[in-house]
Structures are given as structure tokens and as C-alpha cells.
Amino acid sequence: MCGIVGYIGSREAYPILIKGLQRLEYRGYDSAGVALLDKKNNLNVYKKKGKVSDLHSFAKNNDCTGTIGIGHTRWATHGEPSDINSHPHFSQNKNLVIIHNGIIENYATIKERLIKRGHVFQSQTDTEVLIHLIEEIQIHEKCKLSIAVQIALKQVIGAYAIVIIDKNDPNILVAAKKGSPMVIGIGNNEFFIASDASPIIEYTKNVAYLEDEQVASLRLGEDLKIRNLKDKEITPYIQELTLELEQIEKGGFDHFMLKEIYEQPRSVLDSLRGRLNTGEGKIKLGGIDDYLKRLEKAKRLIFVACGTSWHACLVAEYLFEEFARIPVEVEYASEFRYRNPVIYSDDVIIAVSQSGETADTLAAIELAKSKGATVLGVCNVVGSSIARATHGGSYTHAGPEIGVASTKAFTAQITVLTLMALELASIKGTLVESAFRELLFEMELIPKKIEEVLKLNDKIKEIAYTYRESRNALYLGRGVSFPVALEGALKLKEISYIHAEGYPAAEMKHGPIALIDDEMPVFVIATKGANYEKVISNIQEVKARKGKIIAVVTKGDTDVKKMADYAIEIPESHELLVPLIAVVPLQLLSYHIAVMRGCNVDQPRNLAKSVTVE
Ligand code: G6P
Q1: DSSP 118-171
Q2: Residue 357 Cα to ligand 1 middle (Å)
Q3: Which residue's CA lies nearest to atom 7 of ligand 1?
Q4: Which of 23, 258, 371, 613 has the fewest CB neighbours in a 10 Å radius?
Q5: Tens digit of pLDDT for each residue in 310-363?
Q6: Residue list, ligand 1 pocket, CB within 6 Å
């Protein structure tokens, strides 16, 4: 969702901004823009609906000089995607220009007030209202920009990460944030600012993450200054980034999504590293050490998440219930936060999020904390808002995930959640030692097994070719494979725009079976396990109605293979660990189908990687 980038220093800002915006493209957007302050103190703004490349084609023929500038990718909320609604936005007198990620919820009341005072608005955005308000305060209070920003932000309700240029004070960028992420790069007499570190990493590794309700002044020739909305000075905490440039580049793959699918043996291994000790039969997740007693005493666990992370939580439900014998509820964060849920102080809430920035998940965490519950996080992005808002937690060490469709984050989440479930089981004594040890060995083998699945890519491509023109698809699974079916369907619909549904195989009879005809591909996870025979019956029901069966089966399977139009054989594993392996062919299938349909795999329409608005 909206991406922000800014630069102030002695280099030309425009190339830094355009490259930065390209790095932020993965977040999802529908328009882009830049503002540059040139040597003659002209504020040049270029903005376009469409891609960053469209903006660049347009802007490069104009004056793009200037060593101070801001850039933005917009994901429309208030007002349709259009040139006018794109950011940056000017203030009434055109002395200030702003970029903004977030939503100003009370913008309508402020706008009404400003219109009565003669303000004229060009766009339908909430952002333009905010910059008009800031300028009004600046003029009225005769104060500098950073003070006007503090005063204005006390009046607004909502979320924001903003950066402003002031024509009358050309040596400063003023930034502020609440809810939406913002990181400041500190160079040699230059500053960079962005929604995440990817536009900054090329230039400096020294960064400071801005906290909520902080206003930063990035003035040339001075150190970074941060004050909160009450004007209290805050000492910036400057840290070194561990991110490497090659982690955010495609490294020879056609798309980030494919690269990330192929990274899974490594990302699962990295998520296990240092935590799993098969020799001693032990698991140690450092980040939850202090909360083990609370976990042990908890009467239930509540998982909150969105999208693919929610699917990982559904898998976790089976793992925690089976291994640690604790009741589990899995909630969509967006529903949970508005439902007045019953939360006890001895509940443990586990929030799962790749980005660590999803607005609904963050709000669900705050709600649970306000009821006295312990909240643990499973995040991929170190230092993200969710990682900071939770009491404790464990990172998934998947590395940066750039493709909008989540792949390696999903398997890394399940890996960490499996370790958590097993650690809790060992504390509670709910698994016999031999079974526990067996599971640890099985976990260690997962990366190799994923590698084996990746070798099936050519065959999967062939299957993708057969079903590339499908209009609908059904995904079926039972038990712990049901969430895998949901995830398979989500992958297909989000990147190829084929309507797909995931269903518990037996539930098919209660609705989706009506859709089955000889054109309907039905992807079934039919690996060996307690439900195997039952799934075979469900496959028969599909076959009887001439549906096409593409089955994910255990290596060596004969029964399902006889019935299936295509079978993808995956290595055998413990039944509850199968999602880590079975999801991989489904990811590859969706990827190839989407590529064959000419879709933009890494940036599917309307979707955002990091959903920072509710
Ligand atoms: C968006 C992304 C999904 C992701 C979901 C939750 O919809 O496109 O890939 O699963 O948000 O995001 P989170 O960062 O909280 O896991």
C-alpha cells in the first residue's frame, strides 16, 4: 500500500526517487508522483495514474533537477486513481507539498471548515486537506513547519506517514508518522526517507525508525531531530540495517514470486536455525522464553491475522491442538477488532504477519492488550510495528518478500508456529518423548523435501498449460490440508484472476458440487494420512460429475493416481507437517498459470503487499 520516498542532500534527487519508487512498487499502487525543489526554488510536481515507468516517461521530459525531493506510489482510498488524486499534493498557497500513506478519517469535517475559510481543493483526497490545514496553522500561528505539523496532527484522527517540503525553508524535509511505517536513512550530510528500507539500503545502512506520533526534521547540515506531538525532544535510535541489496533484487529469476518460491528450502532452514536441536531433543525460541509460563497456563490461544497469514494460523490450529492439547481460535483480525470479543487476561493471543504492518492485525493486538491478554507476534520484518507492539514473539527468517502473493513467508510462518506448538507440547508433556523427537527429525528434513518438490517444476508447468484458460477452479483438502486448499485457491485468484475457491473436501457436497462439470479443474490434496480414504470418496464424487482432478499425492501413491487426470507426487512426511510441502506445487501452478495468462505476477491489480489501512 502507498509507498513513500524522500531525499535531501547534495545529489540529484530525481534518480534516487524513481529508483526508490520502483523498489516500493511491490507494495501495490495505482499511481505515482514526485515533487522536486530546484535551485531557483521552484517546486515542480509530476504525477500520473499508472506505473512508475509511466511517471518517468512523462517526468523525464521536464525539469527534474533539484537536490531535495519526495516521491509517492498511491493505492487509492479516498478518490479514484487519477492524475489529480495522485500525490504529491500542494497546499492552498502552493508553498508546501506533501506525500502521505494512511487515512485521515476526520478529513471531511476539516475540509468543510477550510472551505468556509476560502480554501479550494483540487483533488478528492484526504491528504490534500491535511496539507491545507498545516499551511493554515503555519500562517495563523506564524510558526515553522515542524510546529505546524505537530499542531495539525493533534487535530486529525487516523493513520499517517507524511513527508513535506516547504518552499520557504528549502533546506529541510519534515516527516511524521502514526500507524504507517517510516524509516529514515542517515548519510553523510544527506538524509533518505522511505516506507521501508529498500529504497535506502543502496546509499546507507544507518537508519532510524520513526515511532508513532513523532515528527522528524531532516535539515541539511544538522543531525536528525525528532520531537513528539507534545514537542518533547526524542533522541533518535540509530541502528545498522542487516538487509543486503541482493535480497531485494530478482537474482536471475523472471519474477520475485518465482525467486521466493525457490528460496523456500533456505527460508525454512533459516527459520529453524538455532532453534531446533535434534541431538538433544530440544526446541528454543528465544523471543518467547519469558512467556512460556503464560503459554503453559493459558486456557486457550487466539490467533489473529489476515490473508495468507490467516491461513498459516489455520494450520497452526491443528498443530497446537494436536501437539499441545490447547483449544485454539483463529480470527480474521478485521472481524475480531470490531466484534467486542470475549478476551480473558489468561488468554494468549498470537498475531501472525509477514509485513508486521497490517493495520487490522495491529488494531487487534491493541484490543487484546487493553483486555490484559498476553500478545505474541510471528513477524517477518524485523522492527516492524507488530513486532514492536507485541509483548514477545519469534521472527520468521524468510528474508524480504517482495512478490505481493505471499509464498516463502507462509512456509516460514508454519515452520515457526510448528516449533512453538512443539515447544509448548514439551513443556506441557502432551507428547510422548519418542513422538516429539520424531517430529523434530521430520522438521529438519522439510527443506530437503521442498527441494525435491521444486524439481517437479516442468511437470507442474505442463499442468498449468492445460488449465490456463479455466474460468473457475476448486481446491479441496481435509484436516490440516484444508487450509492448504484455501491458500492454493487464494494464490490462483490473486495473481491469475481465475475465480477459485478452497473448501473442506466433504463440504463440497453442500454447494460447490453444483459448479462441477467437465471444464472444472479440482485440485485435491490427497496425501496419505487419516483422511486419505475419505478424500478418495470425495474425488469419486467429482469424477462422477466429470470434473478434472489434479491431485497432490504422497510419493508412491497408486490409488489416487488411477483416478486423477494429473498427480503431483510429493515426499512423505508426518501428516501434520505436510502443508509445508504440499503448498509448494500449488504456488508453482498459480505462478505458471498467471504467467501464461500474461498477468503481472508480482504486482497483481488492486492488491497491496502491506495493507496499512483498515
Ligand atoms: C495482503 C498481502 C498478503 C498478506 C496479507 C496479510 O493482502 O497481499 O500477501 O497475506 O496482506 O499481510 P501480513 O503482512 O500481515 O502477513
Answers
A1: T---SSS-HHHHHHHHHHHHHHHHT--HHHHHHHHHHH--EEEEEEEEETTSTT
A2: 9
A3: 307
A4: 371
A5: 999 999 999 999 999 999 999 999 999 999 999 999 999 999 999 999 999 999
A6: 306-309, 353-355, 358, 361, 404, 406, 607, 609-611
